[in-house]
TrEMBL record:
Keyword Isomerase: yes
Reaction(s) this enzyme catalyzes, per UniProt: a (3S)-3-hydroxyacyl-CoA + NAD(+) = a 3-oxoacyl-CoA + NADH + H(+)
Residue ranges constituting the 3-hydroxyacyl-CoA dehydrogenase C-terminal domain according to the UniProt record: 478-564, 600-687
Name listed for the protein in its UniProt record: Short chain enoyl-CoA hydratase /3-hydroxyacyl-CoA dehydrogenase
Coiled coil: none
InterPro entries: 3-OHacyl-CoA_DH_NAD-bd (IPR006176), 3HC_DH_C (IPR006108), 6-PGluconate_DH-like_C_sf (IPR008927), ClpP/crotonase-like_dom_sf (IPR029045), Enoyl-CoA_hyd/isom_CS (IPR018376), Enoyl-CoA_hydra/iso (IPR001753), NAD(P)-bd_dom_sf (IPR036291)
Assigned protein family: In the N-terminal section; belongs to the enoyl-CoA hydratase/isomerase family. Belongs to the enoyl-CoA hydratase/isomerase family.
Originating species: Rhodopseudomonas faecalis
Segments forming domain 3-hydroxyacyl-CoA dehydrogenase NAD binding: 297-474
Amino acid sequence: MSEIVKAEHRDGIATITVDNPPVNALSAAVRRGILERVNAAVADSKVQAIVLTCAGRTFIAGADITEFGKPPQPPSLHEVIDALDASPKPIVAAIHGTALGGGLETALGCHFRVAVKSAKLGLPEVKLGLLPGAGGTQRLPRAVGPELAVQMILGGNPISAAEALSHGLIDEVVDDTVAGGEAFARKVLAEQRSLRRLRDDDSKLAAARADRSIFTNAVAAMTKKARGFEAPFACADAIGAAIDLPFDEGMKRERDGFLKLVVGDQSKAQRYAFFAEREAAKVAGVPEGTKPRPVTKVAVIGAGTMGGGIAMSFANAGIPVTLIETGEQTLQRGLGIMQKNYEASAARGGLPPDAPAKRMALITGVVGLENVKDADLIIEAVFETMAVKKEVFSALDAYAKPGAVLASNTSYLNIDAIASVTKRPQDVLGMHFFSPANVMKLCEIVRGVQTAPDALLTAVTVAKAIAKVPVVVGVCDGFVGNRMLAARSNQAEKLLFEGALPQQVDAVVTKFGMPMGPFAMGDLAGLDIGWRSRQDRGIKSEIADALCEAGRFGQKTGKGYYAYEAGSRAPLPDPEVETLINDTLAKLGLKRREISDQEILERMIYPMINEGARILEEKIAARPSDIDVVWIYGYGWPVYRGGPMFYADLVGLKPIAERLSHYAKQTNDPSLEPAPLLKRLADEGRTFASLAKGG
Ligand code: 3HC
Ligand code: NAI
């Protein structure tokens, strides 16, 4: 019998324990083990009731995602759940940690469920581009009603044990899974309770059967932000079948939907992204046994846009932080913005009413860099000029305690040059957050030539502790994300000179699934920043310059590449901009031509992929999947397209290399020629993914 799934007998109760670290995923061996143990317990006349529980850190966290796309191994999860459901003896699932996906579906196949207070229960399949495929879409609506089921299945977020209890998803909160589960089973026996098979219990569907708008309104609310995604709609369809059809027909609809999604590109991309994110956290080139340095005190320097957001990220994670400014006025201004930001979230219902005060209490604002002296980690977010950065880091070198990690949030500047002004370059690195820093999950951890492995690991660990997704990158202008973004911006600008309009370019990019196009993004960031920097460097960009000369700095002046109505952030195409572009082109003697959406798409995406290839060649990123994680979490690349490098593999490197060569010639721009790595892989008929496999 199975060793991964064990059974113990006490007073007529068989307790079956799954022990498949790290997360008790439902591998073929686990499925077989549960089935064998349940069948044995049902056949054993000494057993009156069964408890299903898990060892280690969690209840079953779902199907084994690594098995998707491989030939299915018997028994199927359906068979296992059918056996639980059909058992004539009561089965109690006893849950701790997270009961997710196929894990919760397994628990829903049991007749009763108990959970410890800290447990979380959910169906996160939608986040993998899937729908719950083992009865979740049919049993959860029967357990908690269609409204909450829609929220849980389309949103993919778990609920707490307390919520699960109040909605009837669990029967009792217990202190301990085994003791609590067995005690509950004894109660069921003593009270001779009838077995609750969710497949036979339609009571919670009655209201939505009488008035289907209960269901359709819930779906409408949950799909508002689902543009481009297939899975949420397929989930809704399957839940709808629970309302409209008998259980077995609903199961069939669920099955069909699941099989369609699991072979599709979107789910493939989302499963890839799940593993890419976890892979990114494994830092290459750090000797085995390296430990992060302890961090209990954190200081952030600069209470501007980024410093404020970074400090909020620490407060959100319950970590106290000292925020340092140059003067009382800038400090109070920064703290005021943070306070307002928290209050706005609370007013929208995104935070409990007492959260703003609690979180602000974790942020101590002070004036003067000498206040860093206790900090274990210092994150600098002052103005983006090398002279200012060097000045600040010299001061940090004087004030910071030995061993403190000194991080810069610089967007572009050379970390090695910043480190060079200190006597401790081994402690210096970049922690590049993305705006708005309290929201965006990416943190590029920039490793300088002299950065010590344990300092690097400290930054990675801290980033995870404040719920960021860390990706280690090397030193170069703009690191991974902004360097690739520059390749795209460059093309966006050129397209205007050839005849495209901002709204045409942005529409192609948003239709692809990005939250914003390059011109709307420019308006949001402010066009004056680039204008000043071009003036400093004596560079011209006639269209952008003309916009700024006309006082069009973007959203902050109510107009830029677009016009904005007072109080609105919605970009409106502006005929004045078209005139301005036409006049500029006439002055330069350039003619507009018709540019297809296909050309725009290729010129937005392929140069980024090309830059990604250079980044890999230069070892600025360790793996193609790291680049994809940067784009998903830093720039809102649609996760259902897996990131630029994954997308490149899907399109094929050969056609991409050919199109790049074509555009290099068409626009007389040698920088568009395929990078050597891209060319080599294309010639060899390979993918970027093949590099990760040691090619
Ligand atoms: N299958 C295979 N491997 C899994 C897995 C799964 N379902 N869930 C987690 N893992 C692996 C991770 O890749 C990681 O491996 P690594 O150590 O080699 O990198 C390891 O388990 C630990 O995972 P985390 O680092 O994420 O650990 P955390 O403690 O931070 O989080 C968790 C634990 C909340 C369970 C999180 O891993 C998670 O959300 N897992 C996915 C849950 C999920 O999506 N379940 C649904 C699967 S689809 C399904 O069930 C279909 C069904 O309806 C038929
Ligand atoms: P900001 O101008 O909003 O804020 C900078 C703050 O630093 C100001 O409040 C200023 O008073 C303070 N400051 C200046 N010198 C200081 C000193 N010696 N000691 C203490 N405080 C000092 O700038 P922003 O946008 O927050 O940028 C900060 C850094 O973050 C820059 O390096 C920038 O490149 C980087 N960054 C910016 C992003 C953005 O979207 N704004 C995104 C990612 C990184």
